[in-house]
Write a structure and sequence with these properties.
This protein is α/β, with parallel strands linked by helices. It has twelve helices and eleven strands.
Length: 336
């Protein structure tokens, strides 16, 4: 039995955002056929999508094929709108959060996560409360807001609110830097995303966010936590040898905080999965897929099922138990 904590949704039928939210240059959906569409940002093609992105029946068929019981469904980060004025981002979040619940139609196999206007901490707290009451089970946030990382006081206040209200948080990299060297070969996704996530974990450690936040915060970093696990030794060494610069606001060495967050398994190979388990522990790694996008894993959970170094108990934790704990659920998923 498997829980997938990292998937995305693109609902159909959202209104003209320039009218509904104000401003211009918003994402919109170009419908090319009954089964194909293109996410557009202004006049630029961003990503082709198919019915997996908007049709629950197609998602359920794929879940059955992969042996998935529960699927966490989060927004696609291009819709975060953190670069917009706060009032526009509030309206945007409401539109997509309501459309998500409408699309999933209360199906118990889907666990909806909402989005919030993270540039407005008070507005973000209000929206996450509204969404929790409406049926969302968690929230997905981007890993930064402009130049503000996750140790920003406003973002820390929002995360504290999530901890106090029991809303799990999925951190997803977004808005990666571009340029001639990074705009080739999807390099922003292949190198920029891991670096962005690594930087965000660093910010929460060295910026003092974990020290300021209650331990009951349930927070997951996508894509295996980026490159953090591989470079933890370098960070630990720098913290001790150049503490005058590196320690920042942290009260303890970086390794002290490894039990404060979890990561998903979107690393595709057994060797990096083993590094995650060895570094973070068997209780801190949970299955994710990045479904339905082509850089995700299919069949979902295959890297865990094929990992020969895992015991049966460890495999069960990664496939099921750890995710249920992250979601704050105690029941066992149903048989598919």
């Amino acid at each position: 039995m498997t829980v997938d904590v990292h998937t995305h949704l693109v609902p159909k039928g959202w209104p003209d955002l320039s009218v509904a939210c104000g401003g211009d240059g918003w994402p919109w959906l170009r419908i090319d056929s009954e089964r194909t569409a293109m996410i557009m940002v202004g006049s630029t093609e961003f990503r082709p999508i198919g019915p997996q992105a908007w049709d629950p029946a197609v998602r359920r068929t794929d879940m059955d094929a992969d042996g998935i019981d529960l699927q966490v469904v989060s927004p696609t980060p291009v819709f975060f709108g953190y670069d917009r004025p706060a009032d526009q981002a509030v309206k945007l979040a409401r539109i997509f959060n309501d459309l998500t619940l409408e699309t999933l139609a209360g199906d118990s196999r889907f666990v909806p996560f909402c989005q919030v206007p993270l540039q407005d901490p008070d507005g973000a707290c209000a929206e996450v409360d509204r969404c929790r009451a409406a049926g969302h089970a968690g929230v997905e946030i981007g890993n930064h807001v402009g130049d503000k990382d996750l140790d920003d006081a406003g973002i820390v206040a929002f995360l504290k609110h999530c901890a106090e209200t029991g809303m799990p948080v999925l951190v997803h990299p977004w808005d990666m830097a571009g340029g001639p060297r990074l705009d080739r070969w999807m390099a922003r996704w292949l190198t920029g995303m891991p670096a962005e996530t690594h930087l965000s974990v660093l910010a929460m450690i060295l910026g003092g966010a974990f020290d300021a936040l209650p331990p009951l915060l349930r927070i997951c970093f996508a894509h295996g936590g980026g490159s953090f696990a591989f470079w933890l030794g370098r960070l630990e060494n720098a913290w001790h040898r150049r503490g005058d610069i590196v320690r920042g606001c942290s009260e303890h060495p970086p390794s002290h905080y490894l039990d404060r967050f979890v990561v998903d398994t979107v690393v595709f190979e057994s060797a990096p999965l083993r590094l995650l388990v060895d570094t973070l522990g068997e209780d801190r790694v949970l299955v994710g897929s990045d479904y339905p996008y082509p850089l995700g894993e299919r069949p979902v959970g295959e890297v865990v099922r094929k990992a020969g170094f895992l015991s049966a108990d460890q495999r069960h934790k990664l496939l099921s138990t750890n995710a249920l704990h992250f979601l704050g659920r105690t029941e066992q998923p149903r048989e598919v």
